[in-house]
């Protein structure tokens, strides 16, 4: 199985623009013959907690129908991220599209202390089967909590995909932690980070993949928009710059 982590910049609050940019990235990922592609945390709106309540969307938002169409057409698992309106507030969510199946969401369970006044935590982990791999999602801060990786491993995950919005400091923490959880739990780790300005820092890129032994296989630069493609079957990777 080949999975692409899309390292991409988001325009603050411009959901339509960000959808169009992600659609182009998905088409490029399909050209690269991947089976799954995922995007950074809150990449449909930009990481802007102060605006989350205004920008939050519903699970069935019609603007996301294009992702289902692309999933059906190319046979792709697609995961993108936005604030999700839930019963008791707003969650940080991944919206997951699989070919000819209803869309699902996964809400971040473990919130950073700076997020707790704005967002509502999710409950429960989801896994997704794609090309004989069991994929488990993690969203930014929780991907640095060993208990979350343990939960994914207990659910049978063979690949842990982390959708993040990290500064250079956060990327350094990820590069220290992810090899350890890969080795401990015997699952590959693939990270999609943003580039460009967020609420109060600059996304530091560095999207990457580690194999199940914790070896760093492929990584992007800190400021390029790119697809980081990891081939889980043969344990190789490559970086493909996103077309303008």
TrEMBL record:
Residue span(s) of domain CN hydrolase: 1-236
Q: Which SUPFAM superfamilies match?
A: Carbon-nitrogen hydrolase
Entry's Gene Ontology molecular function annotations = N-carbamoylputrescine amidase activity
Recorded superkingdom? Bacteria
Q: Which PROSITE patterns match?
A: CN_HYDROLASE
Protein's UniProt keywords contain Heme: no
UniProt keyword terms in alphabetical order: Hydrolase
CDD domains, A to Z: nitrilase
Alphabetical GO biological process terms = putrescine biosynthetic process from arginine
A Pfam family per the record: CN_hydrolase
Tell me the protein's name: Carbon-nitrogen hydrolase family protein
């Amino acid at each position: 199985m080949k999975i692409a982590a899309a390292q991409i910049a988001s325009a603050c609050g411009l959901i339509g623009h960000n959808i169009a940019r992600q659609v182009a990235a998905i088409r490029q990922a399909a050209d690269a013959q991947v089976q799954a592609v995922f995007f950074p945390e809150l990449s449909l709106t930009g990481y802007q907690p102060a605006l989350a309540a205004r920008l939050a969307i519903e699970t069935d938002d019609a603007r996301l129908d294009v992702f289902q169409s692309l999933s059906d057409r190319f046979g792709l698992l697609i995961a993108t991220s936005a604030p999700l309106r839930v019963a008791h507030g707003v969650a940080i969510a991944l919206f997951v599209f699989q070919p000819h199946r209803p869309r699902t969401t996964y809400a971040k369970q473990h919130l950073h202390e700076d997020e707790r006044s704005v967002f509502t935590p999710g409950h429960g982990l989801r896994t997704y089967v794609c090309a004989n791999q069991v994929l488990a999602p993690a969203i930014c801060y929780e991907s640095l909590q060993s208990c979350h990786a343990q939960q994914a491993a207990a659910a049978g995950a063979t690949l842990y995909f982390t959708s993040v919005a990290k500064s250079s400091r956060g990327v350094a923490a990820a590069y220290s932690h992810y090899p350890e959880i890969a080795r401990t739990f015997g699952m590959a780790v693939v990270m999609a980070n943003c580039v460009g300005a967020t609420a109060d820092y600059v996304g530091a890129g560095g999207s990457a993949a580690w194999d199940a032994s914790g070896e760093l296989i492929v990584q992007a630069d800190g400021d390029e928009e790119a697809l980081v493609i990891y081939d889980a079957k043969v344990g190789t990777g490559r970086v493909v710059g996103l077309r303008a």
